[in-house]
Each structure stands twice: as C-alpha cells, then as structure tokens.
Please model this.
Amino acid sequence: MSSIRASVHGQWSSRWIFILAATGSAVGLGNIWRFPYLTGENGGGAFVLVYLFCVVMMGIPIMMAEILLGRRGRKSPVNTMHTLAAEEGLNSNWYLLGWLGVVAGFIILSYYSVIAGWTIAFIFKTGMGDFIGSNADQTTAIFSELISNPVILLFWHTIFMFLTIYVVSRGVKSGLEQAVKFLMPALFILLLIMVAYAMSTEKFFDGLSYLFIPDFDSLVDKNLFSDLFLPALGQAFFSLSIGMGAIMIYGSYLSKESSITFNCFVIALADTSVAILAGVAIFPIVFTYGLEPSGGPGLIFISLPIAFGQMPFGTFFGSLFFILLMFAAWTSSISLLEPAVSWLVENRNMTRIKAAYMAGFIAWFLGLLTVLSFNHWAFEFTFAGTIKENGLFDIFDILTSNIMLPLGGVLIVIFTSWLMSRSSTIDELGVGDNNIYKIWYFIARYIAPLGVIIIFLNTMGFFKLFSLNN
Ligand code: TRP
Model:
C-alpha cells in the first residue's frame, strides 16, 4: 500500500540524490565545529570511543527506523506519524512526536545559523589576510572581538538564515544536488590538506594520541553517564541529523527501490570520517600552539586560522575552507527547517514560499537569544563536568542534542520496532526476513532504546548538572 503513496512534495530524481542530500544534512558544523570542541571539553580519546559506539549501536539503527517511517508515511513528520499510527491501529497522539521534532528543529536552527554566520565572517577575515603570521593570542583576540559584537553577529546570522529560507522556499531538491556533489568532496579534500599541514606540526602525534588513546585516568572523578555518555550520545544524534524528523522528511522523498540499510551505512560512514578528519586536523594545531583543547565553541575559529596564517597559500586555502564550511552548514540548515515548512504546506495550505519565510522568521527571531549569549547576556554554568560560558546558547544546545533528539530517537525506534507490525517494517526495509533484518530488529528493539534510556536514567541526577557558578 505504501508503495503507491506519493509525496505531495515530489521525489528525489535518482537514488543517489537521497544519499547526497542526507549526507549534506548530516555533514555540517556538527562535524567540523561541534565534534572537535566537544571532544576537547570531554577529554579526548574516551569521548571519541564512546561517540563511535553511540553511532553504531544507536545512531545507525535509529536512522534506519527514521527513514523507514518517512518513506512509508510520505508526508511531513507530524502527518507521517499521524498516518502511520492510524494505519497500525495505534494511539493517534503519536503525531506529537512530529511536533517535538519541529520544535527541536526551530531551536537548533536558531543557533546553528548564528554559528554559520561566524563562518561567513571568517571567509572575509581569512580572505583579507587578517591571520597572516598570527599567533594564538592574536587569533583569540580576533575571535573574541567578533563574538563580542552583537550587531555583526546579527548581520551574518540574518544573511545565513535568508540563504536557508531561500533554498527551502524553492523546494529543497533543486540546487542541492550540485551543491553536495561538488562542494562536499571539495571540503573533504581541503580537510586532507589541513591534515597534511597538521602532520608538519611539532605536536602531530600528541594530537593523534589525544584523539585516539583514551586517557582513563582523567575519567576517575567523572560521572561516566552524565559527563561522557550523554554528550557523546547527543553528538551522535546531532551529527547524523536524527531524532527530529529531518531525515524522516528526506526519507519521504525516497523511492521504494532504494535500500535504506545501504544508504544509512554510506551516510554514517561519510559523516563519521569528516568528523574524525576534522579532529586530526585540529588537535595537533591546538597542542602545537599552546591552545586549550577545552576552549569551547571558539576552538576551530581560533586554532585553524593560525594554520592558515602559516601554511603556503594559507589565505586562499583558508577562505576556501570557510566557504566550503558555510556550504556544508547550508545543506544542513535546510533540513532543520523542512519539517516545519512541509507541515505548513500540507496543513495550512500555504505556498512553499510563504511557509519558508514564516518558519524561517521564527528561527531567526529565536536566534537573537544566541547572538546575545556571546556578549551582553553571557552567563556561566556547569554541565557534564564542564564550565559552559555562553548561557542560553549552551542551554539550547544541551536541551536539543542531549535531551530532545535522543528522546525523539528513542520514540521513533520504539514505534518502529515494537509497535509497527513486523510485516510493515520488513516490507519497508525491503530485505525480507533475512539476517540483516534480524540484526536491525534486535538492535532496534533492545540495544538502541535501552542504551538511550540507561544513559538518560543514569543522568537523572540531572538537576545536579545545572549547578550555577556563583
Ligand atoms: N547534522 C548537522 C551537522 O552536523 C546538523 C543538522 C542538520 C541536524 N539537520 C539536523 C541536527 C537535524 C539534528 C537534527 O551539522
């Protein structure tokens, strides 16, 4: 039955475009900005190890479930959950899961756009040679000056949000293909060039061992669940774009012939390699130039420019790097807005253009809170054993990645593996009742939900985590 249901929003024009688009959604600031700074805040190798574990045991199976639901429902996440619950004879309130995702999408996009704005600002700073010959103090000063100026932040945030709205208003499919086909590989190559530079620095091996060799001693006085597993879990969800309906709506444009399992593996592999490469490029620079790995959200904006200021053709490579990073953020941000926009189009009968501007405006407005988090409204608190300095921004980030996305993901995977009939999921995964299906089914039923729930429950000394620093 689901095979004849078509999406009102159309379909991907070839099966590769889904992989490209979903990879475009997954690869973004999460890999190059968020992964390194969280790794640095959480002590390096142990975090990376737990992160990889979360990607494999929870991320991939939940991603499969989310795409499966999208393709079967073929509507916005809210309506997909509504339709599928009715089809399977389940409680109609499951549509609320769609709303959880829409709200998470607004909040993530609101700050994502501000950070993407930093990358645009850095295109110009690097391009004009601001970093030539800079040391760590100078790049730190340039970064601090940027984030202390709300007007400039607002300006770039507005530009980036406009770019996002523009693509969504025209339908996410047009243009996306080109962007992802050429720019993603280019970003990948540029990261390799950065890694080559990192290899030439004094502390290359220190960086590598920091990333890949867990320092178990540093974990002694930590709460493993709240201080390590929860942030790693959140990063896995954030980086793979799962738990809020973004990948569900992309799945709704996917043709019935395409293999969900294969697609998920390709996407997760691409996403993870970009994050690891970013780490390998960044930490040697961090150590060589005496920066603090736990420096927070500014980490890449302070460390990479030193490298661009030193390496041959650094001005060129540097501005190109930030251009490509902006594009990577762009192909991610559109997937954050799409669930809300597709709902407005379906249920409020709006044109895509009007829906995109309306939803985009809400996210833009919410973004003002993040703009102010780095200057006038900055405040500190401690979370997961780390001091967070940027008040509301950090709260938004923690609330969405560490709570809303895993909660959404757990509900998605429980819905799919416990509540939907086995025949529906077998039909949709298209693998028959074979071993691949059985492995997925087992992990989706037991490991993934229990993993998330155990991490949640153990963190439930939760309120202790938000101790305010004076
Ligand atoms: N995954 C993207 C990144 O790493 C961000 C993103 C896009 C996202 N869509 C999402 C995160 C949906 C969570 C949910 O930059």
Observations:
- The chain is about 75% helix and 0% strand.
- The pocket of tryptophan is lined by residues 25-26, 28-31, 108, 238-239, 241, 244, 246, 332, 335-336, 405 (CB under 6 Å).
- Strands lie at 381-383, 386-388.
